[in-house]
Amino acid sequence: MFAIFSTSQQVKAHRTSALVATYADIYRAMPLYDFIFDLFMKRPYEEMESDARMMFWAFSRDRVSSPDDALADPVAYSMWCDFFEDSARLKEAWQMLVTEESSPLMLRRILDACGPVPFRLKQPLYDRLITDESWHDSIFQSLLFSHTDVYGDFDREAAACIYSKLTLRSVEKGDIDRLEAALSSKSP
How many other CB atoms are found less than 10 A from the CB of residue 61? Predict the structure, then answer.
């Protein structure tokens, strides 16, 4: 069947959606970050039409929720370096990934990658998860990455309050020492 487009904008939107779908298919066969990077080289995210963006986010949520680390990790990495480190993209990415319907596996991966996300955006997620001790180690790691990531966003006072509520199960002593040192430090 042939599609009939009334404007050049519709043609561009169709091509962009087809491009995203093609890259998603390629990624499923060979899950490499390089394909995500290449997609953005061909069509920068900011130039994608809303339909193509929605396709991209559906793909990203699906992959980051996958129990297969080989499928999930390259997309989680893309979220960290292509979206969470980019102030123009991070709020939309956060809103698309962190919802009430987000799978626990996806949220754990997002916690690992969200160091650069402004603390004010992470705080509601921490507050929502902290009542369940099974999240405490992941929250701890997220706090640590918020401090240690090159572009990490760390609110010492808020982090100290959250840390005081955590019951840790399998966190390395060296990591505990690093976070406690950051929380007690007087420097920014």
Answer: 18
Contact criterion met (CB below 8 Å) for 116 and 93: no
Q: Percent of the chain at pLDDT above 70? A: 91
**Cα 164 from Cα 58, distance rounded (Å):** 36
Rounded alpha-carbon distances, angstroms, from residue 82 to 43, 62, 126, 147: 14, 18, 23, 19
Domain layout of the chain by residue ranges: 10-113, 117-188
pLDDT digits (tens, 9 = 90+) for 83-100: 999 999 999 999 999 999
In whole angstroms, give the CA distance from residue 166 to residue 118: 21
CB distance 142 to 152 below 8 Å? no
Structure tokens at 54: 């929605």
> 1 with 36: CB under 8 angstroms?
no
Contacts 24+ apart (CB under 8 A), 177-184: 178/144, 178/147, 178/148, 179/140, 179/143, 179/144, 179/147, 182/147, 182/154, 182/156, 183/156, 183/159
